[in-house]
Structure formats: C-alpha cells, structure tokens
Amino acid sequence: MEKPERLLYIYTRLLNGKTLNKDVLAQQLNVNVRSIQRDISDINNFIYEDQEWHGLDGKVIYDTSIEQHRLKIDRYKFKNNRLLNLIFRMKNFTPMIHEDTYKLIRGLNANSNLAEKLLSNKLLSQFKVHKELNESSLIYKIQLAIENSHEILIKYENHTTTSVTPLYTRYFSNKYWFTYLQNNEILTLDLSSIMDIEQLNTVIDDSKFKDVQYVVMTVTDQIWPEIKRQFVILDTQKTEYGNKVKLLISKQETMQLAYEYPVDITLLYPEKYVEDFKMTLNTLFDKYNF
Fold first, then answer.
1. How far apart are CA 101 and CA 201, in angstroms?
2. Considering the domain boundaries, does residue 142 fall inside one?
3. DSSP state, residue 213
4. For a FRET experiment, which of 26, 70, 112, 271 has its CA 20 to 30 Å from that of 286?
5. Which uninterrupted H or E stretch holds 106?
6. pLDDT tens digits, residue range 97-132?
7. Residue numbers of the domain that contains 88
8. How many CB atoms lie within 10 A of CB 283?
C-alpha cells in the first residue's frame, strides 16, 4: 500500500475511535514498523497544522495502559450535544445497536463539528453492531400497525404464527413487552420470544373491544401522566382519591402496577383481579409472619 493510502487508512481509523498496534499495522499494510511510526508522526504534524484542529489539542499518542496508539483530545468544543446525549443514553441502556440505527447516527453526525464527530464515533465503536431484528425493530413494526389500525401477524422462533390486534408496547421488569387482544382476551408477551412482526391488510374492527374485559382503578395525580401515556384509556373521572380510570390492560400488567404503586393505585374492578391481588399480598404477609 502506498504512503497516501496508508495515511488515510490509519487516520480514518483513529477518527473512528479505534486503537492501533504498530506491529499489527505493519503486517496488515506490508511495511516495516519504522514506516508506520513515520506515518503516525506525519499525521500528528497534519493535526498540529490543520486549522480544523486548532483549540482541540489533538494528538496521536501511545497509551501504555492498553499498549496501543490512539487519538487523544484534551478539550472538546461542542456547539450541539444532543446527538452525543442520545448515544450516551443508548450506551447506558444496551451494549448492542442495530446496523440501521448505527448508519442513521453516522449520517446525523455528518453535520457535527470535528470534536463531536470524534467523540460520537468513539462511543459508537463501543457498540456491537448487528443486522438481526431486535426489540426496537419489532416495536417500530408494532407501532406502525397501531397507527395504521391494522391487525398483525406474530411470528415465533418455533415458526408458529398468531394473528392479533395490537394495543401497545411497554418496558417493565427489565424487558420489552407487547400487549395485544386475542379472542376477547388481553395478553402480554415478552418481545424476546418474537422472531418477527408482519402488518396484515385487515383493519382493526372496533366492535372487537365491546366484550373485552376492562380494568377500573383509582390513580393518584402523581403518576396519572405516566399511566395515561402508556395505556389505552377508555374513560376517566376525577374523584377525591385521584382519577378513576377505565382502561384496557392485561391482568399481568394490572398486578405489576398494583404491586409497584401500592400507594398510588387501587384496583376496583374486575373483582377477580382484586381478589387475586389480595391473595398475593396475603402470601407476602404470611411469609414475614405479620
């Protein structure tokens, strides 16, 4: 590989947050280690002289802690850090990122200044990029079907399928869940058990909801915005205890909410749910001999 190509090869990888080993580079590029060292020196001279780098204190250094060369920047001058905040949040949430999301962020990053590009590329390099469908892809398909008021076909990993009416998706108990209507029953499914989602041409018929079991609960003003945002609300009335809410929700989620917010939520109907929740509480009390 000729020197200009080598310089571009090394410089591009440093900008993308990669760490480089001189011996490995020399072997990959079919040159000796001294040539790689001169290339790094040339890149450092370019960084020092290039106007775009002024004020950033950028330099290719040898990091003894990892025994690799990397690009070091002491000061970042950010005009807009919203994209960086997004990547930071994603990094704290998941170690994986879908290829489409990766490409989207790289595209948005094109309008950032040099310092933002360097840091965001370094953060992106810490994700494991994959092409398979993940929860975010499934959620997108589900939400699209909900917006279009269409039925969907759930495809499971064992290759079986089920046609259902989508209601909403939620994140709780450290998982993504999909709530849907099937045979007049509201059910909740762990998204990790779904292989794919297909939107059907069948439009959702509102008459399906006529005989569906709904839930009634009182919700305090403190968490009412959260409940209203996440669930399908059929009716609400203001009372002295908060909001008396009639909603479509699975039994599993009803129990989870009542258990998680015992002060803010009180189950009222159906009576079977109320009795089952009381039994759960009694079991808990018996365990601690109250």
1. 27
2. no
3. P
4. 271
5. helix 99-108
6. 777 777 777 776 766 667 777 777 777 887 877 665
7. 82-130
8. 9
